[in-house]
């Protein structure tokens, strides 16, 4: 745990591939951080072998990036380019900070798992704040666009007992207020179609909100890892 570098950019040891599947450092960090007792009293003991990224018994896990840059939306970036000196440098600075442990999480891995579902849903569009709102609603017994995948992974989510248990386990407290209500990083109506930033001002606000969270969560991770020494 003492070897966790909260500023390490996982693209460095991914060599041009997807850090979520290719960075050995990221996998080691996930294994070290999340192998611990679950709120239901069971142990999440993550192991790795040739056939899986991480696993605990019969449950397999993959890494997922919390942040989303929408950098392949050319129309949006053309608007952003009018507000920053260099949109290329702006995105690179963002990615350098986002691909650190503060911006990463794990989910059960299988065909059409949370990683895929939240990215492909037109009402989520890979937004983490909306994803977390769906998870919050799961624990309240309320409906959301991600119901199907969470019901499929019921054994995983139920191990956290409640939403607070999930948030605290993964050190996501900076995503919620004191009453564990999800903070929206972009103030759009919940679950509208295509809820991505619509202009340069919204885009920069979105980027800044994500990076603020990554920085705060990284500090929580650092404090947590230091407390175990």
What pattern of helices and strands is seen along the backbone? Answer: HHEEEEEHHEHHHHHH
Distance between the termini: 7 Å
Low-confidence stretches: none
The percent range for helix content is 40-55%
How many distinct folded domains? 1
Strand order of the largest sheet: 3-4-5-6
Largest sheet: 4 strands, antiparallel
Q: What's the Cα radius of gyration?
A: 17 Å
**Rounded average pLDDT:** 95
The structural class is: alpha+beta
Structural notes for this entry:
The protein is of the alpha+beta class. It has one domain. The chain has ten helices and six strands; from the N terminus they run ααβββββααβαααααα. Helix 3 (74-80) crosses helix 10 (200-227). The chain is globular.
Strand-helix topology:
Elements: H1 19-22, H2 24-34, E1 36-37, E2 43-44, E3 47-49, E4 52-56, E5 59-65, H3 74-80, H4 87-98, E6 104-108, H5 114-120, H6 128-140, H7 147-152, H8 154-158, H9 163-169, H10 200-227
Antiparallel strand pairs: 1-2, 3-4, 4-5, 5-6
Overview features:
alpha+beta; four-stranded antiparallel β-sheet; single chain; 6 strands; two-stranded antiparallel ribbon; globular; 44% helix; 229 residues; 10 helices
Short description:
This protein is α+β, with helices and mostly antiparallel strands.
């Amino acid at each position: 745990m003492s070897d966790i570098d909260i500023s390490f950019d996982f693209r460095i040891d991914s060599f041009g591939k997807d850090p979520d599947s290719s960075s050995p450092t990221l996998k080691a960090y996930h294994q070290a951080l999340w192998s611990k007792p679950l709120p239901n009293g069971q142990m999440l003991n993550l192991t790795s072998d040739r056939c899986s990224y991480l696993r605990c018994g019969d449950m397999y896990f993959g890494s997922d990036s919390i942040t989303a840059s929408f950098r392949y939306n050319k129309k949006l970036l053309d608007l952003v380019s009018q507000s920053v000196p260099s949109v290329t440098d702006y995105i690179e600075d963002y990615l350098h900070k986002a691909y650190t442990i503060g911006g990463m999480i794990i989910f059960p891995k299988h065909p059409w798992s949370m990683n895929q579902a939240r990215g492909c849903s037109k009402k989520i569009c890979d937004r983490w704040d909306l994803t977390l709102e769906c998870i919050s609603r799961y624990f309240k017994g309320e409906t959301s666009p991600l119901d199907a995948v969470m019901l499929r992974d019921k054994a995983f989510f139920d191990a956290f007992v409640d939403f607070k248990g999930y948030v605290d386990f993964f050190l996501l407290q900076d995503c919620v207020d004191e009453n564990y209500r999800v903070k929206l990083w972009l103030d759009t109506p919940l679950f509208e179609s295509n809820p991505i930033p619509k202009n340069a001002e919204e885009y920069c606000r979105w980027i800044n909100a994500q990076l603020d969270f990554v920085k705060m969560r990284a500090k929580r991770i650092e404090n947590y890892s230091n407390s175990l020494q």
